[in-house]
What we know:
single chain; 6-stranded antiparallel β-sheet
Amino acid sequence: MKWAWLLAAMPALVLSAPAQVANSNGPVIQVEFSNPDLSPSHWTLIIHPDGNGHFQSERNTAPAARAQGIDVPSVNRDVQLSAEFAGRVFQMAQTHKFFQIECESHMKVAFQGMKQLSYRGPDGTGSCQFNFSRDKEIQALGESLVAVAETIVEGARLETLLQHDPLGLDHETEYLVEAAGDGRVQQIGAIRGILERLADDDAVMERVRKRVRMLLARSEG
């Protein structure tokens, strides 16, 4: 599902190319995102065909990037996406020449963040990067992957709030429910751990726990 990202009017940021995909005997896809105006300013998501993966982000210490909401520390953790979602991503790689294509539209559009898609497997390799792609499927894939990263970062934000500002969970879970509804976050199951902790914590406000239970039910659908 397409969704609006925080747009910043600035020239496209060039990533180092090609991306270095993690060592693996089987096929693997790496997604790399950079936007110096956001926090995190850079993240990398590695996905395997079964949905297993790893997410690593770099916190942006620039005051402008940290102006909105609680600042989230850098994240470095294994993640579990659904096998169905991972299958769609790998199918996209196969139908788009393992990303060995021109992804960038070179159109004068607002800067959305530079995305780099990389594939490596026994059947081929490839990599392309783009701010905005003229290929509707590639553009939609980039938006979905950014939404997955947003989910993982939101999970880290909930963990931080639970520890340091439990009252802040009220606003954050309200946002999360709205964002899950319109596609700004996807693959809610990737943060099942913190959602289950909140749902089972009697010290957490009941309306927060109710929203969290809604999100957990959505992740099982």
